[in-house]
Write a structure and sequence with these properties.
This protein is α/β, with parallel strands linked by helices. It has one domain: Rossmann fold (3-Layer(aba) Sandwich). The protein is built from eight helices and seven strands, in the order E-E-E-H-E-H-H-H-E-H-E-H-H-E-H. The strands form two sheets. A five-stranded parallel beta sheet has the order 4-5-3-6-7, with helices on both faces. Helix 1 crosses helix 8 and helix 3 crosses helix 4. Bound molecules: shikimate-3-phosphate. Shikimate-3-phosphate (S3P) binds next to loops.
């Protein structure tokens, strides 16, 4: 079942049990961390960021991991962290933009979390990231083109999230409030 509520696509995300956590996925620059922090405060959940977790585990910045060990080593660390998330409760989890490209990672997230994908056009994403330089994959002579091709390649994976939420022309608070409302509605449904 898919319901459309004020721009939010709302499939039946019950998976048979009430989700304990809420996860945010989506492309670099879509606003996962800032929306996630606001959501955590709205829901009174803890905020967890997979990139921070990886950096803590590895004792290195993400850019350093990419530079010294390469992307496959980073993806391995990412998948290890995803398994560790399975023990969490009452958390808003912000994920790295490539995390759910591996379908096993999405499957693992869906065991305990309702997965929202934040969506924005490649042009908007470029505007949001163009003055930042901490993302190794966008350290490219033509970052706007890189965003377009990477987003196109990843779109099928992002569509597998439980709920797609457009962030275009919406404030952070508006997006966070919509997501919180949907999450609460699903949990109420399970409680009744
Ligand atoms: C990546 C996104 C980054 C980070 C790493 C790889 C990706 O996270 O995990 O640089 O593959 O899209 P953000 O989406 O938080 O920028």
């Amino acid at each position: 079942m898919i319901r459309r509520l004020r721009g939010v696509r709302m499939p039946d995300v019950s998976h048979g049990v009430a989700p304990k956590n809420l996860a945010l996925v989506g492309f670099m620059g879509c606003g996962k961390s800032s929306t996630g922090r606001m959501l955590a405060s709205l829901l009174q959940f803890k905020f967890v960021d997979t990139d921070d977790w990886i950096e803590k585990k590895a004792g290195k910045r993400i850019s350093e991991i990419f530079a010294t060990e390469g992307e496959p080593a980073f993806r391995k660390l990412e998948s290890d962290v995803v398994r560790e998330l399975e023990g969490l409760q009452r958390c808003v989890i912000s994920t790295g933009g490539g995390l759910i490209v591996n379908p096993e990672n999405l499957e693992s997230l869906k065991k305990h979390a309702m997965v929202f994908c934040l969506w924005a056009s490649p042009e908007t994403l470029y505007e949001r990231v163009k003055n930042q330089n901490h993302r190794p994959l966008l350290n490219d002579p033509d970052p706007a083109r890189k965003i377009r091709t990477l987003l196109e390649a990843r779109t099928p994976a992002y569509r597998n999230a439980d709920v797609l939420v457009s962030t275009e022309r919406r404030s952070l608070r508006e997006v966070a409030q919509h997501i919180a409302n949907h999450f609460r509605a699903v949990n109420r449904h399970h409680a009744s």
